[in-house]
């Protein structure tokens, strides 16, 4: 029996027993009408739409676009309110997905989309012209989200031109740790990549600047961090308040950490976390190709700039 069910019912035992039960009931009641296949057309007339109604509503939508600059939602809800007559109110789609499907199958929909693409303003990609202009930011690692034994902070640096990146692990955010991270970055960027840092852009964190507020006026007092950069002939820039996009490259770089530790099972301390990140920095700088660099690695892109010079 099992072999027959597998052969003729595709191994669906529930289907076999369902029909076996229906056949027994039909023989018992001497009523075989229940065994006949029934139409799957919905009984509700509201969901049986005619081609004429579809054409009227599509015409109405594109008239909305021309005269009222209206969208799909405005027409959909106006039809539901009965603004365009009771007949269309009763015969229009009750589901927004059906409404969209009608419009997208109309050839005029593609024409509108292509027109929008033509007139849409294309913003040029922001790129700097010099090497040595760095973005700096701190990324925190907490045990609830990463495999670490306690909370750590990583000061990361990325060169805007070449996308070369390095970072350093610390147990807290402070001006002293930020200065120490910059010292390491100055040394490593010079020794590894032969890049001299001329500018560092940070956010408005307390380890970078001090904000004093009085009567809604803000004055910025230089910290030891800014003074250290000045002594090293490095310009310190800060982003506008609540504008992380101004440091967009380092912010995007930090998103990579989410995927980096997905399969990490070992709980990391400060040393092992730094080693893990160092392996990633090597891959990022020397092996991973970047679309923004014409599918070159950051290090190869740096070398290509040197050849041009």
What is the secondary structure topology, with strand pairs?
Elements lengths: L1 H7 L4 H17 L21 H17 L4 H10 L4 H6 L4 H9 L2 H13 L13 E9 L10 E8 L5 E6 L4 H19 L5 E4 L7 E5 L2 E5 L2 H8 L3 E4 L9 H7 L1 H5 L9 H17 L11 H11 L1
Parallel strand pairs: 1-4, 4-7
Antiparallel strand pairs: 1-2, 2-3, 5-6
Helix pairs in contact: 8-9
CATH-derived topology of the largest domain: Nucleotidyltransferase, domain 5
Please tell me how large the radius of gyration is. 33 Å
Q: Helix segment count?
A: 13
Main CATH class of the largest domain: Alpha Beta
What is the number of E strands?
Answer: 7
Listing every helix as H and every strand as E from the N terminus to the C terminus, the arrangement reads HHHHHHHEEEHEEEHEHHHH
Number of domains: 3
The percent range for helix content is: 40-55%
Could you describe the largest sheet, including whether it forms a barrel? 5 strands, mixed
* Low-confidence sequence ranges: 212-218
* CATH 4th-level superfamily of the largest domain: Ribonuclease H-like superfamily/Ribonuclease H
Distance between the termini: 81 Å
Structure classification:
alpha/beta
GO molecular function: endonuclease activity; hydrolase activity; metal ion binding; nucleic acid binding
Organism: Spiroplasma phoeniceum P40
Keywords: DNA integration, DNA recombination, Endonuclease, Hydrolase, Magnesium, Metal-binding, Nuclease
Protein name: Integrase
């Amino acid at each position: 029996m099992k072999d027959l069910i597998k052969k003729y019912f595709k191994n669906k035992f529930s289907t076999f027993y369902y029909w076996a039960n229906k056949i027994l009931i039909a023989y018992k009641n001497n009523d075989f009408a229940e065994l006949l296949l029934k139409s799957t057309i919905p009984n509700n007339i509201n969901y049986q739409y005619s081609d004429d109604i579809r054409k009227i509503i599509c015409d109405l939508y594109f008239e909305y676009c021309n005269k009222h600059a209206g969208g799909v939602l405005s027409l959909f809800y106006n039809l539901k309110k009965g603004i365009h007559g009771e007949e269309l109110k009763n015969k229009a789609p009750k589901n927004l997905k059906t409404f969209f499907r009608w419009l997208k199958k109309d050839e005029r929909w593609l024409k509108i989309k292509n027109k929008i693409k033509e007139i849409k303003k294309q913003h040029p990609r922001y790129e700097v012209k010099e090497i040595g202009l760095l973005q700096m930011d701190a990324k925190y690692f907490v045990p609830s989200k990463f495999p670490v034994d306690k909370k750590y902070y990583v000061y990361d640096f990325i060169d805007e031109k070449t996308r070369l990146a390095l970072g350093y692990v610390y147990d807290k955010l402070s001006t002293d740790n930020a200065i120490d991270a910059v010292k390491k970055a100055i040394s490593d960027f010079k020794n590894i990549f032969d890049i001299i840092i001329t500018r560092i852009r940070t956010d408005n964190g307390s380890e970078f600047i001090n904000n004093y507020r009085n009567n809604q006026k803000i004055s910025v007092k230089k910290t030891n961090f800014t003074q250290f950069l000045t002594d090293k002939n490095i310009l310190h820039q800060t982003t506008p308040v609540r504008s992380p996009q101004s440091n967009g490259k380092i912010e995007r770089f930090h998103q990579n950490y989410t995927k980096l530790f997905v399969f990490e099972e070992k709980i990391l301390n400060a040393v092992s976390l730094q080693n893990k990140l160092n392996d990633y920095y090597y891959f990022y700088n020397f092996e991973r190709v970047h679309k923004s660099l014409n599918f070159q690695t950051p290090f190869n892109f740096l070398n290509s700039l040197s050849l041009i010079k």
